Structure formats: structure tokens, C-alpha cells
Amino acid sequence: KAEILRAGGTVQMVRVPGAYEIPVVAARLARASRLTPHASPLSAILCLGVILRGATTHAQHIGEAVSSALVQIQIQHEVPVIHEVLLLENEQQARERCFDKKHNRGTEAAQTALAMAGVMNSLRG
User: Fold this and answer.
1) Quick check: is 58 catalytic?
2) How far apart are CA 56 and CA 73, in angstroms?
3) Are 109 and 48 in contact (CB under 8 A)?
């Protein structure tokens, strides 16, 4: 959030109960941004989450479904969807990727969102 605000952007944060629910919210945000009169279009949607592997292949299926859905949303709505829904082995990996100041995936996602907003803006000609 701080990265976007520092760049002069605004942030709307929506929390969902699990990774599988992220795509439906991303789709709603993308659609509402396009269809709501007087609303400024979204520059990007950041999808952040963690899926921890277990003893079965369930986490892999969730990860694949989320990835596939997020790709479709960004193509259909022409808004960058930054995919940082991480499929990890354990809680330690999650802490390293989400809370580390040097290699924080959330900060990297915000930087990608800002870069993609610039790219998309340059194509609006």
C-alpha cells in the first residue's frame, strides 16, 4: 500500500476469506470500474494471497484455478491484474516472501502495478 501511495496513487483494499475467492472480487472490481459512470478506471488490480501446500493436491488445483481466472479477468477487462497469489510449501516461506523488507512480494507487486499502469496509459493514444 505504501508503495502506491508514495507514487501518488490511491488504494482500495478488499479482503476475502481465501485465495479461491480472489478472482470473483477482482472481476467485480474490473467490471465496476468500466461500467460505473463518473468512476475513474482502475489502473491495476493487485491480488495478494498465500496458498500453503498440504498432503493432497488440493492446493495445486486452487493455485491453477486462481491463475487461470486472473489471466482471463485481465484480458477481458483490459486492466492489469498483478498476480501475487503464492503457492508455498510452509509458513516460513510465506513469512520470508511477505514480510521481508528486502524481497517483499507485496512491494514488488505494487511496483509492477505502477509500471503496468504506465504501460497501459501509454497505449491509450
Assistant:
1) yes
2) 28
3) yes
DSSP H or E segment with residue 80: none
Residues 46-85: tens digit of each pLDDT: 999 999 999 999 999 999 999 999 999 999 999 999 999 9
- Of 112, 77, 105, 120, nearest to 7 by C-alpha is 112
- Which member of 58, 61, 77, 103 is catalytic? 58
Tell me whether residue 114 is exposed, middle or buried, using C-beta atoms within 10 angstroms of its C-beta: 0 to 12, 13 to 18, 19 or more: buried
Query: For residue 57, what are the contacts with CB-CB under 8 A and spacing of at least 6?
Result: none
Residues 74-113 have pLDDT tens digits of 999 999 999 999 999 999 999 999 988 888 999 999 999 9
